[in-house]
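Chain X:
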Amino acid sequence: MSKRYPGGIITKSPATPTGPFETGTAPGIWTLEQQMQFKQQGVWPLAGNVPNFIEDVFSCFLYTGTSATQTITNGIDLSTKGGLVWIKSRSNAAGHRLVDTVRGATKALASSSTDAQFTEATGLTAFNSAGFTLGDNSDYNSIGENYVSWTFREQPKFFDVVTYTGTGSNTTIAHSLGSVPGSIIVKRTDTTADWAVYHRSLANTQYLVLNTTAAAATGATWWNSTTPTSSVFSVGTDASVNASGGTYVAYVFAHDAGGFGLTGTDNAISCGSIAVDASGNGSANLGYEPQWVLAKDTNNTQNWLIFDTMRVFPAAVSSGPNAVRLSPNTANAESAFGQVGPTATGWGTSIGQLNASSTYIYIAIRRGPMKVPTLGTSVFSTSISSADTGVITSGFVTDMAFTLDRTSSGVTPFDRAAVDRLRNSFRNLSTATTAAEVNNTSTVSFQQNNGIYLNGGTVYLNGYVYEQFGRAPGYFDVVCYTGTGSATTFSHNLAVVPEMMIVKSRSTTGNWQVFHKDLNALGTEPADDSRIRLNSDAAATANNVIWNSTLPTSAVFSVGASSDSNGSGVTFVNYLFATCAGVSKVGSYTGTGTTQTINCGFTAGSRFVLIKRADDVGDWYVWDSARGIIAGNDPYLLLNTTAAEVTGTDYIDTANSGFEISSTAPAAINANAGTFIFLAIA
């Protein structure tokens, strides 16, 4: 069944909504932005559901200290919603600091210490509607020092902060999580005491201690041998959790409770365990890709681990980069751990990086954003660098970039390169060659909240154009995978059917393979039997093993036995794109040899256009607004060659609805009756 609302038709989910599609604030009445979310993903909301998204309740934010008052704006409303801010210096040995809205600003706890709560007047000084304010305390804000902050907003089915006074006898403590807690961290605040950790993967007679390396221990007096419920958790008589007259704070984490996404059924946080085999391999299936993980080996004396994707938490591959960890039980600076990392559906390792024959418990938080973008500027940026080093801002968290030299330096792969956060900083793939991934620390780093960092040294980066993309449902996704050598599927998080996919082998040489929904090789084959190469000007040809003659779905993409898309043991990256209303368009057109407008559904024109002739020879042309998409001449670059930028041509022009193909364009762009595929971004 379907129902029309202003702007299109969407499919009805099993639940019946309580109101029409119109703006408003009452349950069941949705804003225009929410309506666009429903339309893009093709679902109705559940009755009375007000959508919640992970980007509104959790932030991992990196900053550099100034030794002066500074405000961290991370988009999390702490002043009216409440929550916890956890801060740690990355570059120096300094204590973790945990400050929450219930105990109040300046009231800190250190996770590596048994110390009681202490006041730091120039630490975290205020909670704001979009973040928090810091004073000049060196544990929070020393000049030149690098920090990470993790912000947890109070939200049912995600996280809650509870304070209580101990009774000295078995009792229950009420919470407002709205679901059964998956993990609880308790700290006594009035005197010294260990940090007590409850986790659902342990028995209710067991506990862990956050400030030590100790394995899981048994003690019935900690949680009173009682599993928490959706309204209370139990504490026994141990002084760490319930001394008579003692004051305590509890941080309560949900587990697979739903409550997020358009329908309110998506999970945003999971508390589980990984069983590690004798080779040190193990993985967790979360059903989503995580951005933050807190983990502990429960069988051995080992440090706690915190990983997050804003620092270094790359897809784990053999000979790949190590994940960078911080440990709550120490004040140490961040350090390399091993090759563990996220997948499209979880986290772990298949290359023996965990303690053999052991069990790790974890708290994992879903990667954002969960909202479908409505503005191109929120997920795409194009800029020209004016120096070899420094930040190239984008206005969002950048997940992938094309770095394009305009002068044909010939220094492959850096002059035409694809780089992305999931593979880690400095790892370059040449779009113009078949070369394997190259690591060079003089190129691009992703440890930024807003854009990328150029670390030029041996590589000249001044004057490059940088096309930056942010991952978001309905628009763009990145998946890293290891080939199996036989037909299979791999999960993705695009949330809609991919319309264009760009796949490249990382660990070996191989052609870039491109899937496009409108490919029709030689006029006879469907898209799933077609191949076209990003590193070549050749036309599309028939090939039924690249995509296994199977179209992608909103959950998985298929690959056959080709070494270019699924070689056994070979590592790959896949960039997935879709048409997102008003943001991006994956499409095709037929050439006319005359001026024609390509309607992408935009209102202010295209800022990025990629075009390739599919039925005959033709390069991969790139235009962007940083270099100029105007009524006059428009410079272009080619992704499949290292040739210098071409100026003095007027092959495309502006058009509010998308872009215009000029009558002066060559056959590679507008041959009469030719077939052309494109990707455009507003």
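Chain Y:
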Amino acid sequence: MRWKSTVFVFAVLALCFLLPMGSADATDPLDPEEYDITIPGHDRHEVLRASIHNGESFTWDIYFTNYTAHHLDLQFVVYSEDRKVTFSDMENMTINARRDGGDPVTKRLDFTVYVDEITATTYDSRVFMSIRITDVETGAFDLIPIAFAVDIHSSYDIAGNYNKFFGFIPNTLPYPFSSPVVPFIVTLIGILLAAYAAVKIVIPALGMRFGEELETVGRKRAETLMSLAVMIIAVILFIDPGLRIMGADLDSILLAEDVAISILVILAAIVIWKIYITAVELILNKIGDDEETEWVPSLMPVFAFVGKTVLIVGSLAIILYVFGYDLGAILVSAGFVTLGIMIGARKVLTQLFSGITIILTRRFKANDMVVIRGRPYVVKKVRLMYTEFTVMTKDRIVTMPNSIAAKGVLANRSFGRMMRPPMTVKVKVPYGADLRKVEEIMLEVTKSFEHIVQEPHKPSVMLTDYEDGGVEMTMEFVTARMVKTTDVKKAIYVRLAEEGIEMPLKRIDVYLVKDMEGGETI
């Protein structure tokens, strides 16, 4: 009879609210032939029933039709007898008048009933709607009541778990063992024993699988840690059925579930952290296994900080979401802050990520010959933010940001490190020799060697120094395979000798000066 009294109270309140506040003569009822209210698939004169799961909703389409030549005003009053069953806001509306000879005017209204997420299973929960339809010109009105019955099917229903072993075996023991405490303890012990047995089976199997890789101490430590982790997870998973067995209220069960999920998130973050830090350490050690990149493992603190920050922020966001906090505004604010930081530090970040890309992909390494923006360079050292190059003459070092080095490499001329770094041969010719002739001879000699590269890196000759004994000429060339510089020097010597150009020797010129007065020679 509770719902009948509720209907009565609701009807009285609705009538008081909907009574016309204008002229006292406008009390004639509205002719039912002048309007129509339809709900497809339902008879509005009967209770409209719907089955809704907790946390979900159901929508009815309500059509209002105006057959008159007057405007009709609609006002709504809605009431729910269950505070966990809510409904959409119903705004007052006006249906335009029917034109002469025209079709009736119809408007559709969606009415949605929502069931709270933590609502327990209930049946016949009523939502009442009262509609006042008023003729705007005559003031005539009519009151239309509509009742909605909601059957709630909740996944949090605990009625079937109370005082049952493992949540499904009834406790038929005599007093004092008939208390739900007994199934609670037995279920907890059973779950822990099952977890312990699983650990004892899984760990030895893993030990046999990785027996050679794991030492005895390492195996025992792994077994202890895994056993502890499995026990903690078993206790967390027991919280929900344990509280149901004890007959705890729904709010306590949901709170315990949120706490359990938060603990699982923390455990998962710890596991991911261990895997991440181990993988990064292995990768950095592998990359830094030679002298050129021996500094790479020192980047470990940077990767550790980034990984730890991401895991902490992600875990915290998941936990807050589990407890029902709206992260939309926080994420938007964090996004703007992150965007601002990235815009401000975009150049630094570009260098950083370019360096990481070069190091990880090994696009080029020390002693590789590369062409950047049309100019050849020899890689000296690859750093995280920049790369050091030497020019072909090796007379200066060029430091280039990694963003330019990564984008500007047109070709790596080392052909998988088969092409050698530039080689140099120095030749000294006497003062007065035809330097152009010397240059031509030296270049011709390189053509007689099969493995000296002529294209795209042509051998080059330049004057490098003026010395006491003569002019120093330096020739630089690239080889695809090993070529002995002694052979090149020998060939140059023979060709210069054939052309009558002798290699100068160190000598001292002595000049005799005759003393005119004494006749002595000095």
